[in-house]
Design brief:
This protein is mainly alpha-helical and about 200 residues long. The chain folds into 2 domains: about 100 residues, no CATH class; about 60 residues, Orthogonal Bundle (Arc Repressor Mutant, subunit A). The protein has 7 helices and 4 strands, in the order βαβααααββαα. The protein has a two-stranded antiparallel ribbon with strand order 1-2. Strands 3-4 form a two-stranded antiparallel sheet. Strand 3 and strand 4 form a beta hairpin.
Length: about 200
């Protein structure tokens, strides 16, 4: 049994570099990639690799990819626990702190939705962050009737330390990859982010 996916990894890497197709013309998906409101690579209309030619993914390759992805998710869980241990807080609190560091001020409801938490759980979490001097509830700059959660200077420093550790790990791996492969990896990561959260 085989799986068919749109486009090809080679063409995705080439289009990310703005290269031309084999026929000599520019690739239809060679426009610069846009970043979303969180500074992440967006998934283009029609899917990650566009709606062009297809390639066949055999069971062995698909299985290897799934196995690697599973290992990556487990490594991510270990990384989250390590970050939480270094910050001397629970894993969920550390994830909330890093979410606020990456996205900026959010309402309690927005943060709860991002972390899939109930209103009661998010209230207790924010109480812990506030008591630890990491965050505070504050009126939104654009609408003072709206209350948002804002990181304090200490909270920003803690989130930045976690981000630097993650970036160091990514740079260590990505530095050994060709530029086209790095872009393809980023695109795949974004596509999986959308699909796994759906």
């Amino acid at each position: 049994m085989t799986s068919t996916l749109p486009g090809s990894l080679d063409s995705a890497g080439a289009s990310a570099r703005g290269e031309s197709s084999a026929a000599g013309g520019p690739r239809p998906d060679s426009a610069p990639l846009d970043l979303d409101e969180n500074g992440m690579l967006g998934v283009p209309p029609g899917g990650l690799l566009g709606s062009g030619a297809s390639f066949v993914l055999d069971d062995e390759t698909a299985g290897a990819i799934v196995s690697s992805l599973r290992d990556l998710l487990l490594a991510g869980e270990r990384f989250r626990h390590l970050i939480a241990t270094n910050l001397r807080m629970g894993v969920t609190d550390a994830v909330a702190l890093n979410c606020l560091g990456a996205r900026g001020p959010m309402s309690a409801g927005e943060l709860a939705e991002a972390l899939s938490l109930t209103p009661g759980t998010i209230t207790a979490l924010l109480d812990r962050l506030e008591s630890g001097g990491l965050a505070r509830r504050s009126p939104a700059a654009e609408d003072r009737r709206r209350v948002v959660v804002v990181l304090t200077e200490r909270g920003h420093a803690a989130a930045a330390a976690s981000e630097q550790r993650l970036q160091a790990a990514v740079r260590s791996v990505a530095s050994s990859l060709p530029a086209g492969s790095r872009m393809t990896l980023a695109q795949l990561a974004q596509a999986l982010r959308h699909d796994l959260a759906a």
